[in-house]
Specification:
CATH topology of the largest domain: FAD/NAD(P)-binding domain
Low-confidence stretches: none
Number of helices: 10
Order of helices and strands: EHEHHEEEEEEEHEHHHHHEEEEEHE
Shape: globular
Number of strands: 16
Largest sheet: 5 strands, parallel
Structural class: alpha/beta
Helix content: 25-40%
Number of domains: 3
Distance between the termini: 42 Å
Radius of gyration: 22 Å
Strand order of the largest sheet: 3-2-1-7-16
Length: 403
């Protein structure tokens, strides 16, 4: 008589939740029943891969996107059914969502939201927003990145303040004649600017404190750069080492690429004070070099800027208020009236400001706690939430404090 399968509940059906389900079904040493709670109709897409715009490209080459480390060409081989491509290509994000969905085995998809997580005797249970309870032997938190929140003190009621540009129809009411301000200059701002530009908007302004757009990938991958980071790193020793290494080749980007296999070990070796110092001094520039635009995306952004459709302003927003038929925004050097302001600043850096209802509830009850420096949630090295008897696990972006 075969043993009864363990029930594993997964909270969130975006990329992280889908990958967790795929690997559980493929590699679990015991039979498992996987229950994924996700309000969206399609699993595997989430915010990152839910776009239908094929102009929204992955910011990593296809050859680095396999779901299986032991099969590095898996995604590339899957993509061959859609296009004659290779490992160097930057493919549509929508394709990656379809790729993940295509690999999902037999899972129970519950279209709901999880309102709470509670103990159920020796087990755990998901309490759904409708009040029903789903008991589980183990549970995986995979909520994805926290929803965007306005940088204080921006934001307000009404359609002119667009807090979540990825919400369905969020930008549909914007007329092309309206000037639009994007708060943030990262990859979200790039995607939104390209979409608005394609829709005919002639005046798009993106602003942030540093005014830095993501760097661009080269047309061809950098050759592998052998690196030996400091064994007992401090913020200063890492910066000195990185400066010297970059100076040899004249480009920071291959240094950042070469560091990728070492980042977990380096971060783990830093004291909290050194981590804080590193974040304070280099976080934004690291993000610019680490999270890059595909070459074709960088070309489109350059074209928008050269035509005057897109302007990038350093300094961020000093203040903003509704005035007449628009929003008067005080930038670093002038006041400008915009038809709408779009929040492209991304998730709040401190998990304690999260707008995710479940995460806020779990933090309030002490089921989870903030990770180091408020980055994500605290886990052990294997991803288990402390104090849960290895019954509650965390995967995805909210592990950023440890990885």
């Amino acid at each position: 008589m075969s043993p009864s399968p363990e029930t594993v509940g997964i909270i969130g059906g975006g990329a992280s939740g889908a990958l967790a389900a795929i690997h559980l079904l493929r590699e679990s040493p015991v039979p498992v029943r996987v229950v994924v709670v996700e309000p969206r109709a399609a699993l595997g897409r989430g915010v990152a891969y839910g776009t239908a715009d094929v102009g929204h490209l992955l910011n990593v080459r296809a050859g680095c996107m396999s779901a299986f480390p032991d099969e590095p060409d898996h995604f590339v081989q899957w993509a061959h059914r859609l296009s004659d491509t290779d490992a160097r290509a930057f493919l549509p994000r929508a394709w990656y969502g379809e790729y993940l969905r295509s690999m999902l085995g037999p899972v129970d998809h519950v279209r709901a939201r999880v309102a709470d997580v509670v103990r159920d005797g020796s087990r755990v249970a998901m309490v759904l927003d409708g009040g029903s309870v789903v008991p589980c032997d183990r549970m995986v938190l995979a909520p994805g990145p926290p929803p965007p929140r306005w940088p204080v003190p921006l934001g307000g009621p009404g359609g002119r303040w667009i807090e979540d540009p990825w919400a369905p129809g969020a930008l549909a009411e914007l007329g092309p004649e309206e000037p639009v301000l994007l708060v943030g200059t990262g990859l979200t701002a790039v995607d939104i600017a390209l979409g608005l530009g394609a829709a005919g908007h002639q005046r798009i302004v993106a602003t942030s404190r540093h005014g830095l757009l993501p760097a661009a990938h080269p047309d061809e991958p950098f050759p592998t750069l052998p690196v030996v980071p400091p064994t007992r790193p401090t913020a200063r020793s890492l910066l000195d080492w990185a400066h010297a290494t970059a100076a040899e080749g004249g480009d920071w980007r291959p240094v950042v690429d070469a560091l990728r296999p070492h980042t977990d070990a380096i971060w783990g070796a830093l004291s909290e004070a050194e981590r804080r110092r590193l974040l304070r001094h280099v976080q934004r520039r690291w993000e610019v070099l680490r999270h890059r635009m595909a070459p074709s995306v960088a070309t489109r952004v350059s074209t928008l800027r050269q035509s005057g459709q897109l302007a990038v302003v350093t300094g961020g927003v000093r203040s903003a208020r509704i005035s007449g038929g628009g929003i008067d925004v005080v930038l670093a050097d002038r006041t400008v009236r915009f038809g709408a302001v779009v929040n492209c600043s991304g998730p709040p850096p401190d998990i304690r400001r999260s707008g995710h209802p479940l995460i806020r509830a779990l933090l309030a009850r002490g089921v989870v706690r903030p990770g180091p420096l408020g980055l994500g949630l605290d886990t052990d090295d294997n991803g288990t939430i402390p104090g849960t008897d290895r019954r509650l696990w965390l995967v995805g972006p909210l592990r950023c404090g440890h990885a």
